[in-house]
Amino acid sequence: MDDDTRHCRTSRHLPHPPEAVWAALTDPLRLARWWGPAGFRNEVSACDVRPGGQWLFAMVAPDGQSWANHCEFLTLDAPRRLEIRHVNAPWFTLGLTLLAEPGGTRLDWDQCFDDAATAEALRARVTPANEENLDRLAAELSRSA
Asked: CA 35, 31, 94 angle in degrees (round to 5)?
């Protein structure tokens, strides 16, 4: 049974076809441009977008503070489903599902933490940050349209 308390979920309609959204999710250069909350930038040292591929990057805040991230791509089912495992703390799996709908794509974002306590401790920060992530993705899609 799925423990809902471990999840932080959001959805967004993007006025672009699933293939265009998929390209922004899986192109390492584009991913580095939009990933993270508003004002952050990414310093990528590796991004091998394939099942089992590693994504190593530092997420840098506007004040210069940096956080190392180590992720592994689990599932790539173009252009429908992408799963990424965050393999350093905080531990979570991010599932991104793309569904074609009139006028574009619905992106469902499901961040599932390994335990409910971590999800609860981070929820107030993660929820708005995930929305900012999707704002940046929307801007990247508009930029390349």
From this structure: 60
Regions of the chain where pLDDT drops below 70 = 1-3
What SS3 state is found at 73? Answer: strand
**What are the contacts of 52-57 at 24+ separation with CB within 8 A?**
55/84, 57/32
- Sole residue written with tokens 């930029």: 143
Pairing of strands 41-47, 7-14: unpaired
Task: Write out pLDDT tens, residues 40-71.
Answer: 999 999 999 999 999 999 999 999 999 999 99
**pLDDT, position 1:** 37
Closest CA to 25 of 85, 131, 97, 91: 97
Pairing state of beta strands 81-86 and 92-101?
A: antiparallel
99: three-class secondary structure by DSSP: strand
What number of other Cβ atoms are within 10 A of residue 21's Cβ?
25
Output the pLDDT for position 2.
53
What's at 86, amino acid-wise?
H
